[in-house]
Write a structure and sequence with these properties.
The structure is a homodimer of 322-residue chains.
Chain A: E1 11-15, H1 19-30, E2 34-38, H2 44-62, E3 73-75, H3 79-83, E4 88-91, H4 97-110, E5 117-119, H5 126-129, E6 139-144, E7 153-158, H6 164-176, E8 180-183, H7 193-209, H8 215-223, H9 227-230, H10 235-242, H11 247-255, H12 273-287, H13 292-309
Helix pairs in contact in A: 1-2, 10-11, 11-12
Chain lengths: 322, 322
């Protein structure tokens, strides 16, 4: 078993060098890893190097790990050579189940025993992808957001045949690599963030399909509206604040009826006692002792800071140093 | 007809002083209006004054209009007195159709002829709310986001019996009052932003109802994930970037199949040629001449700035002034 301590990993292999795989490579390079990439596309290497080059100024601002260097990027001619010395493998192939299944079996065969192999899949359950691998126990999902070098979230979950220790190892590894990890204890198609994002996306597609809104309207309605809050306060806590001092309970009392309105193509669940309590208690837990006034002040300052950061509000005058 | 030029409005009446109505009052005060409020709740006034007081530091940071002063807030004892001299009325009563219908008829009766009366409704079509008013032509929807004093978006739309000039007037008034206006040419339950937001919200409720994710997971999955991008780049343009240099067309080619996956409870529309072209052309229009590289650089800088603004990345060292 060649599974190193998660914090000691030095060599990472990225399989697939498209937007996501290339983004992972850029992230790992910036965190100071040796990164080996394999991608079967003939133009993969120049595209990858362009991507890393374009990302590097952002990564420099984010703060490079000691020794981080784009020169530590190596492109391997074959999958087998790419994986031969890997201490962690991140697969980011196109989103096709058969392809992922075959590729994960090949990666499993080519990678030293025990080393964890993670898939960037946007939504396939690992249970469906790990069927043909000789050692399915080390195969996990590590689902990033675009671009992986900037968006902290990684959703980590195993399949039915995944060793729970491989899931735990992957979560610790991603944390060591500077990511924000959401470990799931069950497989849910689309995980958490993608289910939320996808519901919004499908509603947007329906609106465009029916001529109800344009791409511009949709984008503006988010960036000028709820998107400003979601950068720092999630939809649940945000809606709890819409309930005023009465919080989520008051919000559900007030807007519960609207769940029956056709505000989206998505049918709402029954707002029974259990769900009501789950939301109210969940928001209390998420508030973690912050009062309504604390949360309002935090949200207000957050929106102002985001408006300022995105150039929609001038910077405050700096006080002279005297 | 007592409808002033939108830029000349000096006196605004807010009916309902809960979280939304009170937030509107705070916004209008900060923009330098005289604001009269009416709310039937016995504790409305102290609650309202607390809200305005709590919002004022944020409003000061946003930049107060000349003469803006919380002392210009007046609470009227009756609806009739509140509306008698109004040049614009914003209704923010609880979200109940019958109540809104009756209230709008009363507001119409109490407000000088021609003055526009807007409803903050989160999703009722004005057509359903304007049925009993004597002059339905001046009734429009002006749907804000919480808190109305911070989130720029207002969705403006009329009902079947609304005078299109009242809609156009409201849009110009809100712009003069510092809002970002999305004018809709048809009634869509939930408008645009709320349909998108509500789809996400219902998916979240389903997940909590089924024990698939906690409130904390849901909130973190947004603030650590897609929420960071949505503060400045909408879901369409964001997804266009996920298509790499091939943009939205490549993204749809690549992920189109996933629309059939059960990633959300919301069924996707058929990705036919018309929708495909609508998304690709819409994104090209939204990009407004910016190249893929421009958009990537903009997104990267945006995420970094938002991470910094929300305290998740240290400020860069300031250069000494020498």
């Amino acid at each position: 078993m060649a599974r190193p301590d998660p914090a000691d990993v030095a060599r990472v292999t990225c399989v697939g060098a498209g937007v996501i795989g290339g983004g992972w490579a850029a992230h790992f390079l910036a965190r100071g890893y040796d990164v080996t990439v394999w991608d079967p596309a003939p133009d993969a290497e120049p595209r990858l190097r362009r991507l890393v080059e374009a990302a590097w100024p952002a990564l420099t601002q984010l703060g490079l790990a000691p020794g981080a260097d784009p020169a530590r990027l190596k492109v391997a001619p074959t999958l087998e050579e790419a994986c031969a010395e890997a201490e962690f493998v991140q697969e980011s192939a196109p989103e096709k189940l058969e392809l992922k299944r075959d590729l994960l079996a090949r990666l499993d065969a080519a990678t030293p025993p025990g080393v964890v192999v993670a898939s960037s899949t946007s939504g396939y359950p690992m249970t469906d992808m790990q069927t043909t691998a000789a050692d399915p126990g080390r195969l996990v999902v590590g689902h990033p957001f675009n671009p992986p070098y900037l968006i902290p979230l990684v959703e980590v979950v195993g399949g039915e045949r995944t060793d729970p220790e491989a899931v735990a190892w992957a979560a610790r590894f991603y944390e060591a690599a500077g990511k924000s990890v959401l470990t799931m204890d069950r497989e849910l198609p689309g995980f958490v963030a993608n289910r939320l994002q996808e519901a919004l996306w499908r509603e947007a597609l329906h609106m465009v399909a029916n001529g109800e809104a344009t791409v511009r309207d949709i984008d503006a309605s988010i960036t000028e509206g709820p998107g400003l809050r979601w950068a720092f306060m999630g939809p649940c806590l945000t809606f709890a604040l819409a309930g005023g001092e009465g919080g989520m309970a008051h919000m559900l009392d007030h807007f519960g009826e609207s769940l029956k309105s056709p505000w989206t193509r998505l049918e709402a669940p029954e707002l029974d006692r259990k769900l009501y309590d789950g939301m109210v208690d969940g928001c209390a837990e998420a508030a973690a002792g912050r009062s309504h006034a604390d949360l309002v002040a935090e949200r207000d300052q957050g929106v102002i800071d985001v408006l300022r950061a995105t150039g929609r509000l001038p910077e405050p005058p700096r006080r002279s140093a005297g």
